[in-house]
Amino acid sequence: MSLASGTKLGRYEIRSKLGEGGMGEVYRATDHKLNRDVAIKVLPTSLTTNSDRLHRFEQEAQAAGTLNHPNILAVYDVGVHEDAPYVVSELLEGENFRELLSTGSLPARKAIDYATQIARGLAAAHEKNIIHRDLKPDNLFLTKDERVKILDFGLAKLSQPSVEEVGQTDIATRKVHTDPGTVMGTVGYMSPEQVRAVQVDRRSDIFSFGAVLYEMLSGHRAFQRDSAIETLNAILKEEPAEVGDSNDNIPPTLERVVLHCLEKNPDRRFQSATDVVFALESLSGVTSHRSQQTMIGSVSLLKERRHNRERLLWGTVCALLFLLASAFAFKYFFATTNDKPLMKLALATPDKVTFPSNITLSPNGLLVTFVASDPDGKRHLWVRPLDSLRADPLPATEGASSPFWSPDNHFIGYFANRKLFKIEISGGRPQALCEVGESSGGTWNPDGVILFGGTAGLYRISAQGGTPVLATKVSQKEEAHRWPNFLPDGRHFIFLGDAATTEDHHIRVGTLDSQESEILFPAISRIVYAPPGYLLYINQGALVTVPFNPNSLKVTGEISTVAERIAEVGDNHEFDFSVSETGNLAYQSGSFNAQLTWFDRTGKKLGTVGEPVGMVHMTLSPDANSAAAGLVDADGRESDVWIYDFKRGTSSRLTFDANGDGTPLWSPDGTKIVFGSNRQHTGGIDLFEKAASGTGEEKLLLQSNDAKFGTSWSRDGQFLLFENWRQQGKGEVWVTNMSGTPEPKPLLHSTVFNQTQGAFSPDGHFISYTSDESGRTEVYVQRFPVTSDRWPISSGGGFQPTWSANGHELFYLSGDKKMMAVEVKIGKTFESGIPHPLFDVSSLKDLLGNSYAVTADGQRFLMRTSVEADQSTPMTIVLNWTSSLRKK
Hints:
Elements: E1 8-9, E2 12-21, E3 24-31, E4 36-42, H1 51-65, E5 75-81, E6 84-90, E7 94-96, H2 97-100, H3 108-127, E8 130-131, E9 140-143, E10 148-150, E11 157-158, H4 192-196, H5 202-218, H6 228-237, H7 252-261, H8 273-281, H9 299-303, H10 308-333, E12 343-347, E13 354-361, E14 367-373, E15 379-385, E16 392-393, E17 401-405, E18 411-416, E19 419-424, E20 431-435, E21 442-444, E22 449-452, E23 459-462, E24 469-470, E25 478-486, E26 492-499, E27 506-511, E28 514-521, E29 528-530, E30 534-539, E31 542-549, E32 554-555, E33 560-563, E34 577-579, E35 584-587, E36 593-600, E37 605-620, E38 626-632, E39 638-645, E40 650-653, E41 661-666, E42 672-677, E43 686-691, E44 699-702, E45 707-713, E46 719-725, E47 731-737, E48 745-748, E49 755-760, E50 766-771, E51 778-783, E52 790-792, E53 798-803, E54 809-814, E55 818-826, E56 830-832, E57 836-840, E58 852-854, E59 860-866, E60 875-879, H11 883-886
Antiparallel strand pairs: 1-2, 2-3, 3-4, 4-6, 5-6, 7-9, 8-11, 9-10, 12-60, 13-14, 14-15, 15-16, 17-18, 18-19, 19-20, 21-22, 22-23, 23-24, 25-26, 26-27, 27-28, 29-30, 30-31, 31-32, 31-33, 34-35, 35-60, 36-37, 36-59, 37-38, 38-39, 39-40, 41-42, 42-43, 43-44, 45-46, 46-47, 47-48, 49-50, 50-51, ...
């Protein structure tokens, strides 16, 4: 059954045919509910009467649907269309391994990388008692970001778990009965057990895996003969030719791994896919790049190492540097004084590169990476050797944030598009390791374990990728664990226990052996360990240090100030400083100040409001004559709400409580302001109301243990939308009535993803909001009261949707920091046009809270910009930073 373009299968619309095979026809389709493209496999009509085919197709859906691993094709949905079943899965861009191997063998390093990913996927399936049974190049896919995906579990068999495994699997085990003597699999990649049509187990997949790896390394099949019968006989009785016969560059240790997979007797093979992963990972040193062994060179020279002339020049330079370094070292280390001199360097960014941040030193102190915008306004990772005047962007790292180094100085981990990536600095494309809920720091130990932050706690994952596992658990008063940093033993780590209230923020220490952690001391900052025994963090805007014993896990001295005015990066107390294991320190000076700035629709700057101040959240009055803002202290915490009067050119304080007040929101008539405060000490943030004139007392509107932030007030004043963040939960859109006793209730909520930033349309019949259900934050429109009708607005990331006063436009910020405008029509139904950019908004201080507001006519934008938006402040590098502490 061929499906024409435009055919609807439930919420999916067919776009085009991608291919077909024995198990079905595959189509590209659009999922209109989640605004994404998917792949749909439909069983051909001619085979729907074949019970065996139907059974195998059903088995594929059931088997693959239970698996959640980055190296296995993700299955989203199943259904039936005109009596034909179909499976909906992720849409892959790239090529399958049959196409990849059509040109010959792969380099050993690439083969090991791909094989490791395949083995990890098999290990995840085997843990669920699922055997693939048809592993071959045709069922392996390489995506554009070099992620290997295992496809087609159509021959998968749910193996009967042993007694001790029954309690360890969360899927229903179902036997697949195969008639005796029935051969299932693909000739050339079958295991001897499959050829004999006897009982198979996980080790059968390991044999097939070995056949695929053999082909990757040699360029030809291990058991290919002139006929199928001869091929099957070779699998049973013959040994494949040595891999080295066709490829002299294969290390003997790698060939032994291949042959160990291809043992005829299952008992003599690797006994688990996990064992295969371990064996392949142990080979990484055998196949390391020459560039990885000469890290002192610049990244640009690493990329050009194949040119003999440049290699000769570099060798000469290195020889001269060695002689100079030797002379310097003699004087440096054998001088009469034991103190190494402190030296400060200003490290400027390349020409036409702006807004540098996330400065991070490699462990050996020779390289620095940072995030910066290129002349086209795209933010990438950049790498610069300290002995070079040149910085180079790392390819395909657009949108990167919060980078961190591998212990061997060869890789950089970073976050982008709600995923954790790693990239090799000597070349290659980024590899996605897993999806993440937020970008709040990572750390990498010598055993290949990565920790990263999250709202439920810290998560751990292998540096090879996989499924994240919770490593710590937030306490009742905390809202997240962020900015982990491994201590020297590679088992213990420090991190920030982030909370809604000031007094509940703490620096904590944890271990990989337990999800429990202990408090070290109160602070609100990213924290790092620095040899030989210091902790570095931010206190009142300054970089400070305190002596720390990593063995006893105790603070052993007093706080000292290292540098003033360290720049804050984005949200969640990330500050721009880094330290190497060799005594080098890097930081970016800045402030917490933001400037209220007017722009027109072209992005032309029209003027400023008031003086630069620390500011997180701002909102414009309905008549556009005033603005309310939540001002912050030196640690970035909201302290009080202030009012800016544009006509009088004055600012005045609206709230005076000693606790934190912020996130103001004007009433439709401009007479009242709703704001959030933690003054009730409930463990959350409660909503209060006060007259915009500043007269009278604050009125408590809503109180609970959740964090609440007002986002929109309906024009008739009857309803208030607010974000509700449950402790250890997801963000939700709630509504309460304002014309009587408040009755708060959830409007849009999920236990899986965040839905926030709700805003009423001018007529009150629709709301715009953001959701990260598709894997990144996008803008949507929904009816109010909520029905099943919903319309996606953005497609490349979207934040802070705002309606024009006349309801003809919807504005939002794109993922690449553009002010976007969409023509809309609201009435009995909703219609929207194609989003188009108005101007670049890279000058925004950050995307925390409300960053902009629009006048009623949609012609002017008030934005919370960085006071340093028009310059690129040099980064400061301090060599031997601890020498200043010894002099105090």
